[in-house]
Amino acid sequence: MHGGMGWCDLQAELDTSAAKIQELVRALDGRKDEAIERTFKGAAKHFREVFQELVPGGRGELVMQKRHPGAAAAAADAGDDDGEDDARPVRDAHTGVLDKYSGVKVCCPLTVL
Questions:
Q1: Within a domain: 17
Q2: Helices and strands (DSSP H and E) totals, the chain
Q3: Segment Disordered: which positions (predicted)?
Q4: Which of 42, 91, 94, 108 makes a 20 to 30 Å CA pair with 20?
Q5: Neighbour count for residue 63 (Cβ, 10 Å)
Q6: pLDDT of the residue at 4
Q7: Is residue 1 part of a domain?
Q8: In a domain, 88, yes or no
């Protein structure tokens, strides 16, 4: 035995520790997402500014593509074979959680004069 603790006590301690670790992982994952979004917003702002300098009167923006749960199954059912894998979920090696983002899209609407 470990310091006079019974097996039930050890199991309870392990369960409590596992729950605390899972809570920490969720909190860190949330902070990671916030940092990604904050950084992306800054990059998107600079992209708009530079695009306007390079293309006077033009407008360009970056758009974060978010992954939708179940999108891979829906695409497979619809026979989507466009060669892009943006709908396929990516598993995080540490948590097994689906990643929140699938990529970035550049939007540059054209105007006809």
A1: yes
A2: 2, 2
A3: 68-90
A4: 91
A5: 12
A6: 67
A7: no
A8: yes
2 within some domain: no
61-97 pLDDT, tens digit each: 999 888 876 655 454 444 444 444 443 444 444 443 4
Q: Give the C-alpha distances (Å, rounded to integers) separating 75 from 4, 5, 20, 78, 91.
A: 57, 53, 37, 5, 18
How would residue 112 be classed by pLDDT, with cut points 50, 70 and 90? low
pLDDT value of residue 82: 42
Closest CA to 60 of 112, 103, 113, 111: 111
What are the backbone dihedrals phi and psi of residue 35, each rounded to the nearest 5 degrees, phi first? Answer: -65, -40
Identify the helix (H) or strand (E) that includes residue 92.
none
Tell me the residue length of the chain.
113
**Average pLDDT value for residue range 34-63:** 92
| Burial 72-99, CB ≥16 within 10 A → b, else e | beebeeeeeeeeeeebebeeeeeeeeee
State how far the alpha carbon of 82 is from the alpha carbons of 29, 73, 101, 103, in Å: 31, 15, 19, 16
